[in-house]
Amino acid sequence: xxxxxxxxxxxxxxxxxxxxxxxxxxxxxxxxxxxxxxxxxxxxxxxxxxxxxxxxxxxxxxxxxxxxxxxxxxxxxxxxxxxxxxxxxxxxxxxxxxxxxxxxxxxxxxxxxxxxxxxxxxxxxxxxxxxxxxxxxxxxxxxxxxxxxxxxxxxxxxxxxxxxxxxxxxx
Length: 171
Known about the structure:
The chain is an all-alpha fold. Helix content is 71%, strand content 0%.
């Protein structure tokens, strides 16, 4: 399979955010490796995968696009996978580039939103468990970094996905 430029750009953005935001998590578990607690945390975290998709709609913070726009979600979208910067690069190469052109692509985007939202909720829980463990271990600088990484890597993407659902009329 040959990757397109857009896929490569998306991969770079994704790797950058994942590396930066997972670094404090990896450091915490490296410095204070306790397999029992780590595997219990992972087991608890993966329970989020068992939550049916329809319940994620109940976690929608607002039904107003203006609420999300007041949080600068449109600006934050620029810095994400399939965001405005990636789309701008794509449009330079292909004037007709659009992420969603047809009903089929709309359906695919709907599935993609659900996958991203679920993934970030799972990570959110793991980051929260790791944050609590870091506080318990009295590693306060690391716990602060984990909290900041959680906001950047999970909370903002969840808000972006909720905003995307509103834009597409899925909520």
